[in-house]
Amino acid sequence: xxxxxxxxxxxxxxxxxxxxxxxxxxxxxxxxxxxxxxxxxxxxxxxxxxxxxxxxxxxxxxxxxxxxxxxxxxxxxxxxxxxxxxxxxxxxxxxxxxxxxxxxxxxxxxxxxxxxxxxxxxxxxxxxxxxxxxxxxxxxxxxxxxxxxxxxxxxxxxxxxxxxxxxxxxxxxxxxxxxxxxxxxxxxxxxxxxxxxxxxxxxxxxxxxxxxxxxxxxxxxxxxxxxxxxxxxxxxxxxxxxxxxxxxxxxxxxxxxxxxxxxxxxxxxxxxxxxxxxxxxxxxxxxxxxxxxxxxxxxxxxxxxxxxxxxxxxxxxxxxxxxxxxxxxxxxxxxxxxxxxxxxxxxxxxxxxx
Length: 354
Ligand SMILES: [Zn+2]
Ligand SMILES: [Zn+2]
Prior knowledge:
single chain; 354 residues; alpha/beta; Quinone Oxidoreductase, Chain A, domain 1; Rossmann fold; 2 domains; 7-stranded mixed sheet; 10 helices; 16 strands; 26% helix; globular; binds zinc ion
């Protein structure tokens, strides 16, 4: 038996995605068949579609890694999930290797990322490993459950970055890049009791972050890095927060953002790279030594950290709905074009049922 999915396939880099039938095998003992209800569109999808980033799976490939949907069928050990709505984490770890057993499953070498390693959520259905699925329970009335698709990547990645930085109440969080993951990083840091400063070149994104989480904003457009550093330091000083309690989150995924993040480092402070760019930057690594500072990267989020992320949303401490827009999945190519032209201000959530 197979299931025929309607999928939006990347067949050739730089060309529009093509809607075609895709035969999916029945889920095996460790898998689940998901009926996709919503899939968020991420910059990574655009990178794959344009061919600037190459997916691991051969073409044709259904892209999309921000999925929520309903479990249609599953292997024997996962029958309790059937009929439930779930978030499909963007990183699906094996949960059995050395890294997974050490609590670092988001770095699992056998991980599967939908729309990269396996067919993704730009489709009516998908087959995924069942063990990492996160069941959606006690969703507050009035919350459009489709908005929770962005928890698969953007919100959970932000949460994991904050865990990695060991952010706590009373810290200052500098968030570079106020949209997408950065916007959620700002909200979560604020919910955890930190003072939050967002830095961006877009006044629109900054104003949005001021409404949701940021205590102060800095428009860095056209500014020297050291001048930005001065403004940032004076804010920290005003709140009486020292460099030990300084946590910097680079979420812009740009070389300029990475340079700026690095200049904000001080003694014993912490810098986390959350965004991705193919570009290289020229920095003096010895600053880390001189400041006894810590710099680290973070990738995805382990499945066990998803329930606390959902709890923050359900308690109203992190807003997702103001940051998303909905569109039928049939408009996917238009949405990708709009993203490429920087015309989208919100996370586009695509519904394959219309
Ligand atoms: Zn993504
Ligand atoms: Zn693993």
